[in-house]
Amino acid sequence: MFKAIASSMIVIGLVASGAFAGAEQEQLTGIQGINLIQLAQGEQVGESLQNLVVDNQQSIVGAAGQGFFGSIGQALGAMGECGLVAATQNLGVLGGQWQNIGDCISPKFQGSSLDMTAMQELGRANGAGAASALHTIVLNGGQSGANAIGTLDEATTVMGMQTSDLSGQPGSAGSIMTGMTVVGEQIQGSGAMQ
């Protein structure tokens, strides 16, 4: 099961004459994916495949733009013959971006974060059995802002693959637990010299 949450907020400041006075925007994207197979006794096979693409973009023409793109996949398989086999995957992504771009020569600031955690756990005991798991992850967050004194640009990209395989014969037991974590944060700003 995948759950994706995307929210965007844009605030545009206008002076009485209607001229552009500055821009603020914020974007938050969250993804949670969980995959689970449990086999108990008897002869059984289980498979699960999930793929998700998220594209969250926003811009204030001529002043600021930001975007988040994510493509993730989860594949899980298990088979057992008179054994206990369990396979679990958990993937969480949280990306956030904020910008405050001042007009003319006013200061401009922006920041972003992109955090990801991927976990896989495979286990089997008693009878013959096998399990396999695969995560594929491509994430990108970027933003830019400009006013009369220049531009700010930043981007974070994460690409990863995680795979696990476990098999065994009757009377044996085994387990595998793997994990990946990425924490990325950027903050930048510029202002006019007085």
Question: What does the model show?
Answer:
The protein contains no helices and seven strands. It has strands spanning 2-14, 20-40, 43-60, 64-102, 108-147, 150-168, 172-190. Strands 1, 2, 3, 4, 5, 6 and 7 form a seven-stranded antiparallel beta sheet that branches. By secondary structure, it is mainly β. Residues 1-21 form the signal peptide. This is Curlin associated repeat-containing protein. Keywords: Signal.
Structural Rg: 23 Å
The sequence of SSEs as H and E is EEEEEEE
Topology, number of strands: 7
Strand content: over 45%
Question: What overall form do the CA principal axes indicate?
Answer: rod-shaped
What gap, in angstroms, lies between the N and C termini?
54 Å
Largest sheet: 7 strands, antiparallel
Give the helix proportion (percent range): under 10%
SSE-based structural type: mainly beta
> Which regions are unreliable across 5 or more consecutive residues at pLDDT < 50?
6-20
Q: Residue-averaged pLDDT, rounded?
A: 86
Our count of helices gives 0
Keywords: Signal
Protein name: Curlin associated repeat-containing protein
Organism: Anaerobaca lacustris
